[in-house]
Specification:
The structure is a single chain. This protein is α+β, with helices and mostly antiparallel strands and 113 residues long. Helices cover 19% and strands 41% of the residues. It contains 2 helices and 7 strands, in the order ββαβββαββ. The chain has a 5-stranded antiparallel beta sheet with strand order 2-1-5-4-3. A two-stranded antiparallel sheet has the order 6-7. Strand 4 and strand 5 form a beta hairpin. The longest helix is centred in the C-terminal third of the chain and has 11 residues, at 74-84.
Length: 113
Amino acid sequence: MILIATDGTIAADTLHRGVHGNRFRFPALIDKAKEVQRAFAIVAIDRNLYQLVVVPVRAPDVIAYIALGFRIGNKMAQDLKALTSLDVSFASKHDDNSAWVIHEFTLTPERSE
């Protein structure tokens, strides 16, 4: 969970201690939450994928934003496979020049005997 001040700086972060005052890495989510009161995306943080949900904190006016991160792990991949009967892979790239990173997958190699 990350608490973000209205100026876009981090007020508290439960995953990374000591980042108070740093800029929130996903400002487009704050912009979207300003428009429609919520925003979400799948983002890479520390080589893991998270579904990140951002909502405003009101008292009654907006005093901050809160970002809740839900790690996308093997259980989510297995749940999606069970739901769709399809194998699932989660992969990401840092930019156009970087290699794909596979985070989670359900596909298992077939054995040939």
